[in-house]
Design a protein that fits this description.
By secondary structure, the protein is an alpha+beta fold. The chain has 13 helices and ten strands. The strands form two sheets. It has a five-stranded antiparallel beta sheet with strand order 2-1-5-4-3, with helices on both faces. The protein has a five-stranded mixed beta sheet with strand order 7-8-6-9-10. Helix 3 packs antiparallel against helix 4 and helix 11 crosses helix 12. The longest helix is centred in the first third of the chain and has 42 residues.
Length: 391
């Protein structure tokens, strides 16, 4: 790592306000990059060069300055990151007076630079991950695309798995994210706390992918494993939500869960559904598989051609697997056409009223929809019939 001169000067200015001593930061060649004495910038400091070469503290007493080109009395410590010397920090003064101060300044400087290195690595990693997620969430995604496959390979992301989009939204009590004027360090710390809590919760597994897709939205592309029940996923999401709220009580979190995809080409649909679910009022955790959320989504502007909602797929698959599918569908369609009047619908179907009720009970048992008693279920049945017509 090469120390950025602007960052070095910021560190010097910050530390000088604390230790009340002149502080210098030098590169490995002994050139002063930052100093509380501007006239010394760019000058050679022989003590700094020696500290970098020896990987050890160098102290210069007032009587020894003539032996060190460009030096004043003080203590110089090498800056070591990842077992490599990347520069030197020095504090001006008599060694006996600044020895402990110089060691403290070295430690603080290394912590700041280590954080900066971590942030640089994170930003680089995040750029590639963000490009991958942006492509995956595009309606025009093509899994045979060479760049997409390369990005997926770099991130260890396996294409073609059934997945579900989870969106974690962050808000303050004022229903907004952090004030844009807030210092970046505070925002970074918030993101770090959220990431650490997510990682510690175990929600993100090996085949999952997660990142801050927007400043206030953490997006997870979660693999849905065979036999993994929806209730278990909801329980995992609820536990994550509770841990986040405990870690950051001043932030309001909401999680929206989209429908399960068959492949990456449908991820954009799951994203839309998750976003819609996250926006719904409630206890902070909403899923597109909740009847209220699904109905609201279906009644909004159509999300696009084809499948109107991924959440309808399990219902349509159950219906299509039945031998008497046509009979049941005709019964539901006739009931809806007669404003949910069972007697009128039975007459139109030329069947006994009890026969129709038997069919409707079967629908209720299979789909958990009761159109006669719940208007919400009746509308969902109408959407289901429309969906089946497109197949």
């Amino acid at each position: 790592m090469i120390i950025d001169q602007e960052l070095a000067q910021q560190i010097v200015d910050h530390l000088m306000g604390i230790v009340q001593r002149n502080v210098n930061i030098m590169d490995c060649n002994g050139i002063i990059l930052a100093s509380g004495q501007p006239e010394r910038l760019g000058q050679f400091h022989q003590g700094g060069l020696l500290a970098a070469q020896q990987r050890h503290v160098v102290e210069i007493a007032p009587t020894e300055t003539q032996h060190f080109l460009g030096a004043l009395p003080g203590a110089m410590w090498p800056i070591v990151l990842r077992e490599k010397v990347i520069g030197v920090v020095g504090v001006t003064g008599k060694p006996d007076e600044v020895r402990s101060t110089a060691q403290l300044v070295k430690t603080v400087t290394e912590l700041i630079l280590e954080r900066e290195m971590f942030q640089a690595d994170y930003r680089s990693e995040h750029r590639f991950r963000s490009r991958l997620v942006k492509r995956l969430l595009s309606p025009e995604v093509k899994t045979e695309d060479g760049e997409l496959r390369t990005l997926a390979e770099l991130q260890g992301y396996q294409l073609g798995l059934p997945r579900q989009v989870w969106l974690l939204r962050l808000r303050t009590e004022a229903d907004s994210f952090i004030d844009e004027k807030l210092h970046n360090l505070a925002a970074d710390r918030l993101h770090e706390t959220v990431l650490r809590t997510i990682n510690e919760s175990g929600v993100l597994q090996q085949e999952d992918l997660g990142l801050f897709y927007k400043n206030d939205v953490f997006c997870m592309l979660k693999e849905v494993r065979a036999g993994e029940a929806g209730t278990l996923l909801m329980e995992a999401a609820a536990k994550l939500l509770a841990r986040l709220q405990e870690a950051l009580p001043a932030i309001f979190f909401s999680i929206g869960i989209g429908g399960q995809t068959l492949g990456d080409e449908e991820l954009w649909r799951s994203y839309q559904e998750a976003f819609f679910a996250a926006e719904r009022p409630g206890e902070g955790l909403r899923s597109i598989y909740e009847k209220e959320v699904l109905l609201g989504y279906l009644l909004q502007k159509s999300p696009g051609p084809g499948v109107s909602s991924l959440a309808l797929r399990p219902l349509t698959e159950k219906l299509e697997s039945l031998k008497d599918k046509e009979e049941l569908l005709e019964s539901v369609a006739t009931l809806l056409a007669h404003n949910l009047n069972v007697s009128a619908a039975a007459e139109a179907l030329y069947v006994h009223r009890n026969t129709l009720r038997f069919r409707l009970e079967k629908i209720k048992k299979i789909l958990h929809l009761d159109p006669c008693r719940r208007f919400q279920d009746a509308v969902l049945c109408q959407c289901l019939l429309a969906e089946l017509k497109t197949r």
